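[job 4471] stage=fold_predict status=RUNNING
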Amino acid sequence: MSGTGDKLKGKANEIKGKAKEEWGEQTNDPDTAAEGQNDQVKGKAQQFKGDVKDKVDDVKDKISH
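[job 4471] inference complete, writing structure tokens
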């Protein structure tokens, strides 16, 4: 149950969101900029989920040894 996949997906969403936000700002499209901000929040949440999964795995390993 590694969190690596969640971390990678999260980073991808964060990068995509930054690009989308910048595009929205440059083209004066506030809806696209807002979508980009939402993608960034989603990405950060996914990365946090991955961190939690890794911590849980660490605790499980310590308990089982």
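[job 4471] summary: The chain has two helices and no strands.
[job 4471] exit 0
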